[in-house]
Design a protein that fits this description.
It is built from 8 helices and 10 strands. By secondary structure, it is α/β, with parallel strands linked by helices. Adenosine-5'-triphosphate (ATP) binds near residues 35, 37 and 41. It comes from Metabacillus hrfriensis.
Length: about 240
């Protein structure tokens, strides 16, 4: 298993925002965390990346208990807001992050070209990112998260603010990345995106109320859609 959460709880002060959550994600799997705003999705993935530490329980990534600095090499993280330098071009931004991750010379050049092609940004590489559209910025952030060939890709709402056509293209990119054996965990509150995941976890008020393949979750609740299934498990309206 690439990611294993065992009875993880997280409190901020007296407020427990994650309550006894357990799930695991296998190599090459796309796992979606679905739940309304404030349900705890970001906090869960921050514990997987090691930005937050579980108050109780263990978050393990590739067999190592997080947080663990060395494991960061193996994880690509795309946060909810894009951390780009608006004055720099797409290529300069990506070269900056490539240098930070220790890539050099020919390998660096090759990786930059590869990830820029993967997210369809090569022809915009010389434009200032300050002039990029929201979707282009998200795609550049995705390219940056993938630069160092991470075994695990953690994406917090990668398609928020992106139109349906671009969203489709990002999902096609995720499929391509997964085919290379990369494990992907993604948060969303878009129901039709959840259908594209191999398995989904429904989160409500810090509790994992159900998990399984989209088909399982729908058939167990005799639902026609993921949204219906979410409501049937007791999830709140989006
Ligand atoms: N550093 C923090 N200190 C205190 N409370 C926090 C902190 N981070 C998150 N929370 C609280 O934890 C709860 C879960 O937040 P979280 O950001 O994980 O939700 P989310 O499901 O990712 O929401 P969204 O979809 O809006 O990003 C919220 O009530 C939030 O206010």
């Amino acid at each position: 298993m690439s990611i294993v959460l065992q009875s993880v709880s997280k409190s901020f002060g007296k407020k427990e925002v994650i309550k006894d959550v357990s799930f695991s994600v296998g190599k090459g799997e796309i796992f979606g965390l679905l739940g309304p705003s404030g349900s705890g999705k970001t906090t869960l993935i921050k514990m997987i990346v090691g930005i937050e530490e579980a108050s109780i329980g263990d978050a393990n990534v590739l067999g190592v208990k997080m947080p663990d600095l060395k494991s960061l090499q193996k994880i690509g993280f795309m946060a909810q807001s894009d951390a780009l330098y608006g004055e720099l071009t797409g290529k300069e931004n990506i070269a900056f992050f490539a240098a930070l991750s220790g890539l050099k010379g020919k390998k660096k050049k090759e990786r930059i070209q590869y990830v820029m092609d993967l997210v369809n940004l090569s022809e915009h590489a010389s434009k200032r990112t300050g002039d990029y559209s929201g979707g282009m910025k998200r795609r550049l952030s995705l390219a940056i998260a993938m630069l160092h060939e991470p075994q695990i890709l953690v994406l917090d709402e990668p398609t928020v603010g992106i139109d349906p056509i671009l969203r489709q293209s990002i999902w096609e990119e995720l499929e391509n990345i997964r085919r290379t054996g990369t494990t992907i965990i993604v948060t969303t509150h878009v129901m039709d995106e959840a259908e594209k995941c191999d398995r989904i976890g429904f989160i409500r008020e810090g509790v994992l109320i159900a998990s399984g393949t989209p088909e399982q979750l729908k058939s167990e609740t005799m639902s026609h859609s993921i949204e219906e299934a979410f409501l049937a498990y007791g999830g709140a309206k989006q």
